[in-house]
């Protein structure tokens, strides 16, 4: 889970640095793997990433 969480953070960082679709890939993976993270310290990271993505979408509109 730790490595996977780091990969998701990297995908979001690449999006902010270069644009593209890496944020969409990351949010899809967040939702797919969120259940696997339940009960682990990484559960909060997945929740935070999803909320941050959704908040960013609202600000962009």
Question: Which short descriptors sum up this protein?
Answer:
61 residues; mainly alpha
Shape: globular
Tell me the domain tally: 1
What is the CA-atom radius of gyration, in angstroms?
A: 11 Å
Mean pLDDT: 91
Query: What is the share of helical residues?
Result: over 70%
Largest sheet: none
Care to describe what's here?
This protein is mainly α and 61 residues long. The protein has one domain. The protein contains three helices and no strands. It has helices spanning 2-18, 22-37, 43-60. The chain is globular and about 35 Å long. The termini are far apart. 11% of the residues are buried.
Short description:
This protein has 61 residues and is mainly α. The chain contains three helices and no strands. Helix 1 packs antiparallel against helix 2 and helix 2 packs antiparallel against helix 3.
Topology:
Elements lengths: L1 H17 L3 H16 L5 H18 L1
